[in-house]
Amino acid sequence: MAFPVTRLRRLRQKSALRDMVRETKLSPDDLVMPLFVRPGKDIKKPVESMPGIYQRSVDNAASYCRELYSRGVKAVILFGIPGRKDETGDVACHPEGIVQQAVAAIKDSAPELFVITDVCNCEYTTHGHCGTIVNGDVDNDRTLETLSGQSVSLAGAGTDMVAPSDMMDGRVGAIRKALDENGYSNLPVMAYTAKFASAFYGPFREAAESSPGFGDRKTYQMDPANRLEALREAEEDITEGADIIMVKPALSYLDIIRAFKDNFNTPLAAYNVSGEFAMVKAAAGKGWIDEKSMVAEILTSIKRAGADIIISYHTQDIIDHL
Ligand code: PBG
Questions:
Q1: Is the CB of 201 under 6 A from ligand 1?
Q2: pLDDT for 224-250, tens place per residue?
Q3: Which of 60, 110, 121, 248 is the most buried (most CB within 10 A)?
Q4: Topology (CATH) of 24-321
């Protein structure tokens, strides 16, 4: 049926009707709030490039998580800034490591909050790369050992899900095997499946103190130009046992999110990363945009593209409006 019988504007006349025919609705169920934890007591240290985001000591993170949960946030993902770094990121495997302590404290203060832990070495190595360096580059297979150790240790601390973000080949399989062998066969793995070597991670590296000391991450993170390779990454992760796959960043990669949704039946996450957050906050700080509506539009677009789960620093701001 064509115009004038069909008039698409009819469904747009009243707000109740617009609400009824809306195809994509954001819900608190979709959102995950990232948190940065550091050693110390009663610390809440602002991250310059991410207004409203802080490095928090374990006690502060635990009480903040209780508040988030009471406001409707159901899940957080933790990143650690350790007191001491080493060559391989071994500090991240310690039972008393910073994230292990945070998981335990958060589980005490907000037992129902779902606590995801990022698994990677870049915050824990002196050189800031995501794995063990051999001959000037990150050695894939050696890194699988530290990633597996870190995952088992986080499982022991009580995390609800591990999320490897390193982009080593075979890490999902290695982590799955290590978890299974240690009695954690029910612990899910959310893989950062298509993680691109992106300029949008800049503010995160300030927040997590994880900038590479030399070179860049292009020998392990994906080339932003590649879509077919992302599909191969997804095939690999799913075959190795990933329970959830992820695309990261989100906004410049909505086509990848849609491609994953169309090609795979595995639940899909997207990471609305630090640079995407910082751009919105910077423009809002200058009064150039309406932050609340822009954030709703951004998160809705990520969901419309196909994401079931959205990790976003905006979670703490938008949750009260959902
Ligand atoms: C660790 C990791 C990074 C992010 C999540 N996990 C940084 C990186 O790869 O350099 C980025 C998150 C963000 O920018 O918000 N490997």
A1: yes
A2: 999 999 999 999 999 999 999 999 999
A3: 121
A4: TIM Barrel (3.20.20)
